[in-house]
Design brief:
This protein is an alpha/beta fold and 718 residues long. The protein has 24 helices and 12 strands. Strands 1, 2, 3, 4, 5, 6 and 7 form a 7-stranded mixed sheet that branches. Strands 9-8-10-11-12 form a 5-stranded parallel sheet, with helices on both faces. The radius of gyration is 35 Å and the shape is globular.
């Protein structure tokens, strides 16, 4: 057996070998000798593995990632970076993790062209740098994030990162290259913002720094953007001059790039490839010895080849001149396309803002209409039998449904809907959807049958909200167009791959069916299955929404139907099995709460909304006070305490978000629920960040309204 002293000597030798190959790899990499750098890293891994040296294993795999990235083997590069990250995590080395996350971001940004993944890894790198409080490490991911957003054209998102990078570069850790880059990016930002003078100043500064350090890449890009800026300023001669300078640097960069490409090509050859090439050279030499005996014939051939070469050079020169003219036209077209793109993006933003405003402005008065009709039906039960009152109540709900559907269509078309991946119980979801139509089903004397394949897991990962929207539209249509019949809802397993289950959803009825001539157009917007005079009310948007939502799931819908013989809709979705075995029931045990001694403060600038909300709460026994805006609410809370606060979001002087932040400075316990007419995903992050506990979208269903209030009161009691 080896002695302790002998083991110590072996470990020391291994450590010496590790440092030797690490230094060797770094040296080769700096000389663009990627093949040698990769070989040195692989040898170092062998030694580091013998003593489980996680730190150096992470460094060597990181070097491998850099080497493969250098020869454009991006998938191999990513694989080695991920291995480096695993060892850095094992060694609990935050600095290494930050480096590797940044390098993975570079691979996704420059090589794999996946900006979403690049942003994710850059932000992970930034998280570790901030954890270490090392400002020198923080700069790199911040600048990379800003640059990536800028390349996407998302300058507003990029701007905070650019400003922070500028401050760090010029006050703490900036070098000449960093100063040139940040001035260039800020020049692009202010050109996008049409602040042309400010953009001009930044471009000039960027050029000065880039020239002082001989940065060909940066100079090529700067002069191209500078030419566009000069054109925007009406300085067409300068624009032409800058464009010529851009082309000059581009030619210089091309020569330098060709040298690097030759080096990369050499690095991709293995030792065996070199041996094969040497053998081929020897064989060619033997052939050439035979050919040399016919020297006179070769001379004639060379003369002819020389003449042909001259003709080719003349032709290439003509093509070069033609190419330059074509490039000039292409640049002009590219400029026009960029301007058109900017204008189209501005129009899209205006459209999005318009629909957001319309959503709020329509839903706010509808809250009063829906709320007052509900109160009138409770105060005057006889009104429930009044036909005019029934028409009023139906019209308000119908109008709300129309608004919601139109806004949903716009949101999908503007790519504002993103699928989430959260655990949900598919059986509970289906029961909830079916139960929501129980009244309509009973009214039409329909029976609803559910069939769920036992192979389907109880808990799945996916976007349950979008899936429920699809099912509600299809089941709602089946119930609406079927009387005294049956509706079948089937969930069948179509197979499993790893943890992913492909599930086929089928909604079938024996109702009136769909004519053949409408089975294609029925998925278009505002197309109804039957004319409205037959009392089949609807917006004509349900199936259009279904088709667009299924596209997000990378699926499509199939329709089978015969007139007067029923309809069948089916689609398949791949959902991942969740590791959670069951979903806990999160509903509050509301029967244990006595509402009479509960005080609620209602904060809303709309008088009608305050009256409606107060009446609804008082009808359940709550004690209520009201405030017209946030400042008044803050003054009231200095004197009184409440069990719960209902907070409107859009108010004059200070809005509900700012009011909540001020309240949370002194009161962290009282539940605050947001009342808003804005879409859930547009406001959710803001209200939770401000310290609110929950939210209710106006106009709301009374049962849901009371359930949310009781849930938050229950949590406060606990």
């Amino acid at each position: 057996m080896l002695s302790a002293q002998s083991q110590e000597i072996d470990k020391e030798k291994i450590s010496d070998s590790i440092y030797k190959y690490l230094n060797t790899s770094t040296l080769y990499f700096s000389k663009y000798q990627y093949k040698e750098a990769i070989e040195a890293s692989n040898r170092g891994i062998v030694y580091a593995s013998q003593i489980d040296d996680y730190y150096h294993l992470a460094l060597f795999y990181n070097e491998l990632g850099l080497g493969y990235e250098g020869i454009s083997e991006f998938e191999r590069s990513k694989k080695n970076y991920l291995t480096a990250l695993r060892f850095a995590q094992k060694g609990a080395n935050d600095t290494l993790q930050g480096w590797v996350y940044n390098n993975i971001g570079n691979v996704y940004s420059e090589g794999l062209k996946n900006t979403d993944s690049a942003i994710y890894y850059y932000k992970e790198s930034l998280r570790f740098a901030e954890k270490l409080k090392d400002t020198s490490e923080i700069l790199t991911p911040i600048l990379n994030i800003g640059w990536t957003y800028a390349d996407q054209g998302d300058f507003d998102t990029a701007y905070p990162y650019l400003v922070k990078s500028e401050k760090m570069i010029f006050t703490e850790h900036g070098d000449i290259s960093g100063k040139a880059q940040i001035n260039f990016l800020l020049g692009r930002y202010y050109m996008y913002k049409e602040k042309l003078v400010l953009a001009d100043n930044y471009f000039k500064s960027s050029i000065q720094y880039a020239k002082s350090d001989g940065l060909l890449d940066e100079l090529t890009e700067i002069y191209e953007q500078y030419a566009i800026l000069a054109q925007k300023q009406g300085k067409y001669e300068q624009a032409y001059e800058y464009l010529q300078t851009h082309l000059k640097y581009q030619d210089s960069l091309f020569d330098e790039t060709k040298i690097k490409e030759n080096q990369l090509a050499l690095a991709k050859f293995s030792v065996d490839d070199v041996k094969k090439d040497l053998q081929q050279v020897k064989e060619k030499q033997k052939s050439q010895e035979t050919i040399m005996k016919k020297s006179q014939q070769i001379s004639y051939v060379l003369m002819i080849a020389g003449f042909i070469l001259i003709l080719l050079l003349i032709n290439m020169f003509k093509n070069y001149k033609f190419r330059n003219k074509a490039l000039e036209k292409l640049r002009l077209k590219n400029t026009e396309l960029r301007e058109a793109k900017i204008e189209a993006e501005a129009q899209a933003n205006l459209k999005s803002q318009f629909f957001s405003t319309v959503s709020h402005e329509l839903r706010t008065p509808l809250y009063g209409v829906v709320g007052l009709t509900s109160l009138l039906s409770e105060d005057f039960p006889n009104l429930k039998k009044n036909e005019n009152f029934k028409s009023l109540k139906f019209s308000s709900k119908y109008l709300l449904s129309l608004i919601n559907n139109v806004l949903q269509i716009n949101k999908i078309e503007s790519q504002g809907v993103k699928l989430e991946s959260i655990p949900f119980n598919v059986r509970n979801l289906l029961n909830e959807v079916v139960n929501s139509f129980s009244f309509s089903a009973n009214q039409n004397k329909n029976k609803v049958h559910q069939e769920i394949d036992p192979k389907i897991p109880e808990i799945l990962l996916g976007d349950s909200v979008r899936l429920s929207q699809i099912l509600m539209n299809l089941i709602g249509n089946a119930i609406k167009f079927t009387e005294d019949g049956n509706i079948w809802i089937r969930l069948e397993s179509e197979g499993k791959k790893d943890k992913t289950h492909t599930i086929k959803f089928t909604i079938q009825d024996d109702g009136i069916g769909i004519p053949k001539d409408k089975q294609v157009s029925v998925f278009d917007k505002f197309v109804q299955l039957r004319p409205i005079e037959k009392n089949y009310q609807g917006t004509g948007l349900g199936l259009s929404i279904v088709k667009r939502l299924l596209l997000l799931f990378e699926s499509d819908i199939t329709l089978k139907s015969e007139e007067n013989n029923g309809t069948e809709f089916s689609f398949s979705i791949a959902l991942e099995e969740s590791c959670e075995l069951s979903m806990k029931d999160k509903s509050a045990p509301i029967k244990t709460i006595n509402t009479i001694d509960k005080n609620i403060l209602i904060v809303d600038d709309n008088k009608i909304n305050r009256v409606v909300t107060k009446r609804i709460l008082q009808s359940k026994g709550y004690q209520c006070d009201t405030a017209e805006d946030g400042l008044e609410a803050i003054d009231i809370l200095k004197v009184n305490t409440y069990d719960l606060i209902l907070m409107d979001i859009n108010m004059p002087r200070i809005d509900g978000v700012e009011t909540t932040k001020r309240i949370r400075e002194t009161d962290q316990k009282t539940p605050i629920i947001a009342l808003t007419a804005v879409e859930e995903d547009q406001i959710r992050d803001r209200i939770y960040d401000a310290g609110m506990n929950d939210f209710i979208i106006k106009p709301y269903d009374l049962a849901e309204f009371h359930q949310i209030i009781l849930k938050n009161l229950y949590v406060n009691i606990i």
